[in-house]
Amino acid sequence: MTLFLVGFGLVVAAAIVPPVLPHGAARRSAFGALLVAGCGLTAAAAVVALAGARVIQLTWRSYLPGGDAVIGIDPLSAVFAIAVAVLGATNGIFGDADVRSGAHPERSTEANALYAVLVASLLLVVTAQSVVLFLTAWELMAISSFLLVIFDHGQADVRRAGWIYVVATHVSTLLLFAMFALWSGTARDMTFASLADAWAGMPNRSVILLLGLVAFGVKAGYVPLHFWLPPAHSASPSHVSALMSGVVIKTGIYGILRVLTLSGAPPAWFGWTVLVLGGISALLGVLWALAQHDVKRLLAYHSVENIGIIMLGIGIGALGGAYGYPALAILGYGAAVLHMVNHALFKSLLFMAAGAVYRRTHTRNIEELGGLARRMPWTFLMFFIGAVAIIGVPPLNGFVSEWLIYVGLYDAARTVGAMRLAIFAAPVLALVGGLALACFAKVTGVVFLGTARSARVAESSEVGSSYLIPQGVLAAACFAIGLLPALLATAIARVGAFVAGDPAWGSGGAGASIGTLRGPMLFAIALTAAIAVAALLRFALMRRRSIRRAPTWGCGYPEPTPRMQYTASSFASPLVSMFGAVSGVYEHRGATIFHSEPRDIVLDGVLVRAWARVEAAALRLRPIQQGRLHLYLVYVVAAVLSCLVYFVVAR
Amino acid sequence: MRPAASAWIALAIVLVVAPGVLGVASRTRALLTRRRGAPVLQSYYDLLKLLRRGSVLSDTTSRVFRAAPVCLVASTLLAGAVIPLDGRAALIRFPGDVVALVYALAFGRFLLVLAALDTGSSFEGMGASREVTVASIVELGLFLSFGTLAALTKTSSLSGMLGAPLAAAWPTGSPAILMTAVGLFALMLAECTRVPVDDPATHLELTMIHEVMILDHSGPDLALILYSSALELSIIAAIIVTLLAPRGDMPVAVSLAVLAAGLLATGVAIGIVEATVARLRLPKIPLYLASAASLGLFSLVLVLWSSP
Amino acid sequence: MSGVTEPLLVAVPIAGAVLAYAIRASSWRSAVLVTIAVFHSAIVVLLWRQSPAPIDGRWIDLDDLGLIVLSVASAVFLSVAVYAAAYLRSNTPRGGRVFVSCLLVFLGTTSLVALSQQLALLWVGLEGTTLSLAPLIYSRHDRPSLEAVWKYLVLSSVGIALALLAVFLLADAQAADAGARTLLLTDLTSRATLLDPWWLRAAYIFALVGFGTKMGLAPLHTWKPDAYGEAPSLVGGLLAGTLTTCAFLGVARFTQIATAAGLDQFVRPLLIAAGVLSLVIAAAFIIGQSDVKRMLAYSSVEHMGLLVLGLGVGGVGAYGSVLHMLNNGLVKGALFLAVGNLVLAAGTAVAADMRGMRMVRPATALLVLAGLFAISGSPPFGLFVSEFAIIDGTLQQNHPWIAIITIGLLTLIFVGLARMIIAILYAPRPEPLDASAPERERPPFVIAPAFLMAIVLLLGIYIPPSLQAALARAAATLGGHSP
Amino acid sequence: MMQSATHLLLLLVVLTDFAVLGTSRLSACIRWIAFQGAVLGVLSLLVGGDLAWNAWLLAAGTIIVKAILLPAFLRWAIREASIRRDVEPLVGYLASMLLGGAALGVSFGVAVSMPATVRNALLVPVALVTLIIGLIVLMTRVKAITQVIGYLMLENGVYLFGITLARRVPYLIEAGVLLDVFVGVFIMGIVVFHINREFDSISAANLSTLRES
Predict the structure, then answer these.
(1) Domain-located, residue A353
(2) Are the beta carbons of C305 and C278 closer than 8 angstroms?
(3) pLDDT digit string (tens) for A412-422?
(4) Residues C418, A159: contact at Cβ < 8 Å?
(5) Do C120 and D158 touch (CB under 8 A)?
(6) What is the pLDDT of residues B174-196, one digit of tens each?
């Protein structure tokens, strides 16, 4: 625990110390060193706790109505803390460099400080074990991330995004009020432990579960609560988008898992709700992603998709608990947590690579990019690794977790009774996989391959090492988990068992249901080997062959120009048109140009209109206050009279 | 996990027979349309010829273009390795290895599509777009079919779905199994871009799907791509064969013979289809895929309905 | 020390007012102002050292509720005084001597309200606070401020007259009880069962309307936006931070009596209705509001609604209500002063014309942002704890629908507030950064609101035991309990 | 004898109420309100019963403030601000009268339904009717100065209620109340004066620039 607290302190110091240092190298290196050291220590503490299967706690007295403040690391906290710490370090280094070479280098200190606060509050959120502390950390996270989202507040859309984000996060906080208020009604005090004890005797448990699902869902951003996510991600600086997508939205997942941990096996309806929501947001997320041209928005919608996949895992776990298949519960939760970690890794990687591209080309519109693979080879490699990982194909880490979720679904099919219906999620997940493949083929191909579609792109050059090293770390992690998942088996099983409320979570036996993960490991390794062999084969074949260079075969067209390349809109068009109105895309077919523009169904279709309605209604009340004193006096008299009426009636 | 020798032999058979299946298909088609057509072994000659050729690389392309064929063939091979080709157990088997099968194929496809986009040609981009469109629905259908088998055999490993448990499930679940087999066949036609989804014999790029993607590949690269698409077809064909004729209890030799025969028979079947059915217009293809997938859906519902 | 000091809290400021009026040099006047403010706060801090125990029969004495109100008044006035000293140095409102004197009279009468254990005396004090602020609202001496002060005067006076009627009715309710001393709070609460319920009910109704008018509960709030919008922002701080708190004390006193008399079933629906209505009106007028200070006025309406709502639901809600009275008073003071800086910098209070304040007044902008999160009840600020307690109360007294409605309205209000504040702070300046951009902010203008904001923040993280105990006792007298 | 005198005075109060409601001349209104103040002073003495020195003092104070100072001040305001001499009602005089009549009925109705803890039965309804008519004047008269008069009337009603109490509020408090009323009306008068100086005509009606548009 001391280890963790020291690390936490260092992260906080990373926020406070640099601003007081003199400008220049000292300040910069201080930030980097403090942040990395702090994250390293916290991660180490979490790893120790997880490996040692121990729950470490620290309590101190507080005079708030909420009771004591408790901070502790249990397996659930540990795995999230690890994710936060790793991403915190890598993204911090990246972001420091990125902001310096950005539009406001003079404000990089401010950005770094806010960033460190955000990381610290994230660490606190996942380790807080009492309500008031949790909510405080939660709001600190919200505020600091809000300030980072509107960092480039020069543009109107950034401010709009910030507004939407702050409103969404505030709503989730309010709902959390309600949830904890209800829950703590009969509890001793407001520590998580006593909430867990009070659960059994709760009168209205389902309301609490529902509130939790919605309140944390706003943060997690599953459909239809995802509306704030794309604008915020495309507005904020790249490393912030990376962190938001990597861990900030995962705090919503953490919250749901925490609620499940405290409340024990949920009712079946909860499991089904989560499963269905997961399926829906996975499908719609990837579908909407297909239609995007802003690369960061596109990645944001993929976060929606992956949150959906994670929720599929949670749904399996919840159903396993509800129908009395503890092994399945452990499997489901474990799979969800693993996919959370994986998504954190490769999504941050993707956002950073995209950020590097943006820094060089100053555009996020993929229709203007192209042919960057030969100008930014390393960035391309990073993005490519991220893409392979996110579409969940072997041999990278995305495959392992998606495979686990599939296994859960198939195991569900092997049970008896209603539980088997969960199998229908498998084909949905398959379709999602196919669409994700299409989408990343589109973005990778259009951004990095082919030829440059605009002049500015043509003279862009590779970014520096402080951009690439953090990405390299994450990429290496993706490979490691993809090729050697067996090393994680026990840890995942432990977390799953802890969430599932298995008393034996500490012992090795809990891992049985997840298995040793040696199957996918073997497969991935074999695939890698096969690729190597085939590569050697090809090399041998090609060695003494003549290799001519020639322009692309234009099928008879003499001069293929960059404008003749297949655009992203056209590439996605068949799939998008196949899903019709759901895809929320408006296509413009011109004589020479085909362009499609995406609209978010929930935000632009529902919320904006609803807000307009509310404003209109509010305006309709304006005449009340029209400045006539006599009218105001009439109100007073009316108030008296109505009170008198009550006076007469109320006896 | 000690892979039996029979599994190795079976894999070898598939690897060898794969191009032949295509040959048989085109030959059958030719005969049915009253043409002499190319010899059955023509596809082997083509591959050898390509392997001996040099190659031309487009100067817009990057490493991806050259990496694609390699990854494609490797992943297809691995996909074959998780199927119990000898009707007993696969070389690599673990719970949920169906996912490995489908996603390995997806990995190869991803690389191939990127290679197509790498050339910057609008035609290849078009082909890539169509390829991913078709493939995404095919995956849906595949998982529905495998879901049926999983619910039927209570296993999540292909070695179980197509091994002994399948044979045990035949008496009760034959309707579902047959429906699944038909569905798989239809999906195979789409996945391997045969008629009625795509016509390998066409020469108009605008109507192509698979062929147009690989326009710029030449020499050994092209050979690898062609070979792996043939291999993919044979793998799925092998699944269908095993579905229709569970070989868990046959002696090894017989089982292997049945496999080879079955593959060639599938080739004949494809040929018959191509000779009799007309190619669909592109807008109609999603409908076709949907109905193929819905076969899988029906069978799954049937299984869940009939067994407690 | 109690007994001697309390009258001083009233007398010294009044004397200071006379003194300040006599002094000619404005700098000395400011000195008097600040000294008395410091003196007052010092006394109040001393009073916290032991828990207040009202001595029976004394008219001016301290109880828990009074002490809390007194602390709010004192803290807000201290920072306002510091602010005013700096303010008067830069610009001199017409009738400058009256300005300081009125401020001091206000302090005195406020203390009187907080201290009086005799309801008629409380009324006198409250009327005093009302009148003492009128000249300050008019201190700009232009047409809008004239109109504002006129509406303020007429409506407040009518309200206060009704409150007086309520006091008299209460005295009538005592008729049956020969042994009781007239309108003495201790007797009213301890012998409440002997009160005549008919008169007591009538009294309560007129008290709610009368004091409610001064609190600014909808639909009696109509003077508020005008007065807050036209008054100098430091006066706005006093109005929103202190005056409303005093008025709420009036309602709270009557509620104490009604609760003691076992009439809470009669009282609660009234309070809840008033609270919800105020929230609705506040939400409706905050959405799409174009003027910062008017927006703050409606936000004040919202919080008054929350106060009576908490009182109405009782239980933990009453506790939350008392705590919220404290937090709201402080944060309103801070916000008015901070926003005042921005208004001075921009030369207007129209949101559309005061953009890009983050660049012009960075420190103040930070304060305003903190204030936004504070008044919308976000942790770690004190209002989080109190609003949490109020919502908790509504749920525990099982009014789930009221909790839902409240949360919904709070959300709408936050949407409106956030939109305007973001625009003011972050939207690019209409003209390229002008001369006012690099100018340093004067320390007092930042320190004064920062001081209050710091207290609010502290209350969100740590509630000292003495305050905790005082809150619990005060809540108990209002038919509530601490969580 | 005492009783009948009280009743007589109370009737006078009601009459003044209606007179204010009915007259169209400002000066007349002020005269009536002054008269009412005087009556109140006497009443406070009669009803209070005890004739202690401070009772006399209070009565004197009441008469001085309500019957002499404030009316004089208002007349001064009218003269200085050269306010046009007629009351400008939003509601016609007859309608106002009818409203007043309704008020009378209501207050007597309430009075009979009241628990009989009050000694003088006639006082309460009179107080109520004064109060209500004050409110009516406030709501239905355009000019700022007439609203001041309405407020004074409202105050008188409350004051009357105060002296009807079964037990007296301490004199000190009464004095405080009186002081507050005085200061209040004084400030109001000043504001009325300024309003007139600022705006061309002194109707409170065009004081509606501050509004939510």
Answers:
(1) yes
(2) yes
(3) 888 888 888 99
(4) no
(5) no
(6) 889 999 999 999 999 998 888 78
B39 touches A at CB < 8 Å: no
A355 and A494 share one domain: yes
- How far A632 CA lies from chain D's nearest CA (Å)? 9
- The reply to whether A231 falls in a domain is no
Q: How is residue A91 written in tokens?
A: 């993204």
C118 touches chain D (CB under 8 A): yes
A65 vs C154, C223, C389: nearest CB: C389
Q: Which of A373, A411, A430 sits opposite B139 (nearest CB)?
A: A430
**D-proximal residues of C, 266-295, CB under 8 Å:** 285, 294
Give the pTM. 0.89
Shortest Cα–Cα distance, D93 to chain C (Å): 23
Nearest CA in chain C to A190: C483
**Regions of chain C short of the pLDDT cut 50:** 1, 435
Burial (CB count within 10 angstroms: exposed 0-12, middle 13-18, buried 19+), residue C462:
middle
A568 lies in the same domain as A620? no
Most C CBs within 10 A among A636, A641, A642, A646, hence the mutation to make, goes to A636
pLDDT, one tens digit per residue, over A242-277 is 999 999 999 999 999 999 999 988 999 999 999 999
> Cβ separation of D207 and A630 shorter than 8 Å?
no
- Residue A246 in any domain: the answer is no
Do A615 and A521 have their domain in common?
no
Q: At residue D117, does pLDDT exceed 60?
A: no
Q: Do chains A and C touch (3 or more CB pairs under 8 A)?
A: yes
- Candidates C392, C404, C407, partner chain A, best to mutate (most A CBs within 10 A): C392
- The full set of domain ranges for chain D reads 2-206
Residues of C in contact with A140 (CB under 8 A): 379-380
- A568 shares its domain with A636: no
Residue range A267-321, pLDDT digits in tens: 999 999 999 999 999 999 999 998 888 999 999 999 999 999 999 999 999 999 9
B39-73 per-residue burial string, b: 16 or more CB within 10 A, e: under 16: ebebbbebbeebeebebbbbebbbebbbbbbbbbb
Nearest-CA distance B195 → chain A (Å): 20
Residue A434, domain extent: 265-539+564-572
With contact defined as beta carbons under 8 Å apart, do C178 and D120 qualify?
Answer: no
Residues A532 and A645 placed together within one structural domain of the fold: no
Query: Which residues does chain A have within 8 Å of residue C285's beta carbon, measured at their own beta carbons?
Result: 618, 621-622, 625
Total number of domains constituting chain A = 2
Evaluate whether C160 touches C126 at the Cβ level (below 8 Å): yes
Strands A547-550 and B55-58, bridge-based pairing: parallel
Half-sphere exposure of B171 (CA within 13 A, CB side): 2
ipTM over the 0.90 cut-off: no
| In contact, B94 and A520? CB cutoff 8 Å | yes
Pairing of strands B55-58, A594-598: unpaired
Q: Is A230 among the domain residues?
A: no
Q: How does DSSP classify residue D199?
A: S
d(CA C284, CA C412): 9
